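Think of the structure tokens as a kind of shorthand, similar to the way a musician reads notation: each symbol stands for something richer, in this case the local conformation of the backbone. In the example below we present two proteins back to back. Begin with the first one, reading the sequence and then the tokens, and try to describe in your own words what changes along the chain.
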Amino acid sequence: MGAYLSKPKTDIEIEIGGNANLTYCCASMQGWRLHQEDAHNTIPNFDEECSLFAVYDGHGGAEVAQYASQNFPNFLKKLPIWSEQEKDFKKAFEDAFIGFDDRLRQPEVMRALSEIAAENKRGQNVEDEEEEIDEEELDSEKPQLMQEARLPLREVLGKYGVDSKDFMNIVMNYANQQMRKKEGTVKAEDADAPGPSGSAAGSSTRPTKRAGSPPPSSMDSSAKRAKVDDESCSDAKVEANGSASAHQENEEPKNESADKEADEAEKEEEDEESEDEDEEAEDGEDKSENGPGPSRAPLLNVDRFLRDVSGDSDSDEDYDEETDEAEAEEFIGAPIPGGGEIPGDDSGATACVVAVYKDKLVIANAGDSRAVLCRKKEAVDLSLDHKPEDDIERRRIYAAGGTISGDGRVNGGLNLSRALGDHFYKKNISIPLKDQMISALPDVKIETLTEDDTFLVVACDGIWNSMSSQQVINFVKERLDNGGELRFICEEICRHCLAEDTEGDGTGCDNITFMIVKLNTPYIAPPEDEEYAEKTAVEEKTPVEAEEAAVEAEEAAVEQE
């Protein structure tokens, strides 16, 4: 089931609390995801006359979100600007987000993130060992897998949110590199011997680098470059002056895309040769400068095979060879995420932080979590989702050297443009941290509260992908007006947004964190249960009172007998 569980984890964790001015409830549910990567803060007494609420939606691992939940509030409070009597909230939150993001790449913090990630993994391993595999569930997935096996590769990739062109570019590049490493340089033993197209007749495989041969120079590179014929590349001989003479009387026209691939492959091969110049060859033969160039037939066959598999052949109406090659070069040249190997480098978290200060709401947001206020019956968005395709985000990403794929992913990876962590995308040393392709700089909004403001909600995109801001406000308000308790409303909306299965586009399959902050409503602690109240009453009695109570209890027992 890809990145999903075979059945969702629907246990909901609830936090309830408040102070003299507000009451809150927060709910979190793992859902279909393999791991719970969300974290949050609910601090009703963060500072004098200030409460703090935050949602951190992790990706690539939970460690950045968890570390932010544990450390960001104190980091904010310790800033000198936060201690000022007249606070500059915009600058305070901007400094806090960027400063905290910079802290995430410090060695001691990266070690802490690694420890959190390791602890999470240990906990997951224990959980996996305790969970028994349901054979019936595994069998129930077989029809889906069989159905996907009959679909075109492009359609299957699209189902899981993967751009087919990006995927094929990576596979082609990797396959070509592996074939060069495995096959080495193919030299013709008899360049004039006729043979069938694509056959190995008259040629043999040799190691890439010969013992004792000099390292190739830039002039050697241009002198050895051979044009590749789509039908046969074993009959071409490279002369010392760099021109290629064909020994076929009826030669087919040259394939321009093949020429490009041959040139690029030759350059990559020579880079590998310069790195391996001191290696010994298997047969100890010297490579002749005027000998036949390496065969490119295997590389072209890989190219042709992969295009056939993907359904993206040269005969397709929508296939533009030049455009496809340009996109491939642009994509392959850009950095690609490292697969979650380095916590804080290949993992990150969005952050939506709300401070309730006197009669004001201060919202700082980086990413696609969201805060929304209910004013009368209307939803007032307190934050803006950050997506790579947005104009301001796109300009920054391009200026930092990044790319945006057709499905809105930065360098084929993240589908968001602002977050804490993700320092793999923040390695352009010529620009400041806030201007990197993935930025932690928050949008900061200050909203003055009115008597019409009744509550606000803060949630991760697991909610907002399923419901609009107004739909969420309507959902909560209707239940509050009917006397619903916050905890039950939070639980209900979590279940409402959970997908029945993972057959769709991923909506309803994410982690969910949702909190309601009810304004101008003093928090009233729930009554203690009767057993605990009686125990507390006994503990608070003086020794004399306790003795008298014991005598009374004994007399009552005698009377009953």
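Once you have a description of the first chain, move to the second and do the same.
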Amino acid sequence: MMKRFFYLLLFLISSPLIAQNEVSATIGTQEIKIGEQTTIELEVSYSAAIESLIFPALQDTISKFIDIVEISKIDTIFDPEDVTKKYLNQTITITSWDSGYYVIPPFTFVVGSDTLKTNPLVLNVKNVSVEAQQDIKDIKTIIEVPFSLIDWLLSNKIPISIGLLIVILLILAIVFYRRYKNRPVVEKEVVVPKEAADLVATRKLQELFDKKLWQAGHVKMYYTELSFILREYLENRYLVNALELTTDETITLINSNLITEKETVKKLHNILILADMAKFAKQQPIGAENEEAYKNALLFVSLTKYVNEPKEEKTND
């Protein structure tokens, strides 16, 4: 008794799932002409609880007289009103090259553990209509088309193009040659000697002093320009990258082999240290220090400027 009750309960639970699984096949149009195309829509409605579903395995043909042109991808559609069901559909484009009535056999689906088939379809393929009882006409004679200049140009366009290109190149060569031959004589540009590094630095220091930056409260700007002028002077005077070096790197480089006088190096060091403090440490040097830095900068340039010593003439005793 309990065994029968178990089977009955199992049947009642599984029967809604089986009833939900449906497959169908519909044809777009049942009548086409030879070479025309139509579509077959395959649709499956099944329970979302089913994990496996296999569509029909299709090749290049459905039957001997029906060819498959294209098979679309399988689209999945969910019903928002019934989340327990899934809908899949696929479109098959077919054609035929022989006239007649053809039965498209059922398509077989494997839904879970069940095998479901669609209804068979019918396709009527008609011959292309040809106008009847047309008179057989004589073969027309060949019409001679007059050969014009344009036709000759078109038939010889490659050699003509090459010839034109050669003529154009010759004309350009003659023009350039005449221009080159008759070109005006250009006088050599007078090279102005580069201004000495010490003169540039002295002039810029005087211009900086005339701006009266520190007197107007722009101490940081004053020391920024002062430091730049001195570093630019070192680059022009000693050919070193002073603008890209830190204060310590600059002093170390100068001490190594450029300037031997310690007091001169010390003046530059004091100016650069004071400039760093004003720019980065946000300290405000007093007015006397600002003017002293300007004077020491002028003195440093004067002490280190390049002096072209005249060569002593040799005298014969």
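Compare your description with these statements about the second chain. The first strand starts at residue 22 and ends at 27.
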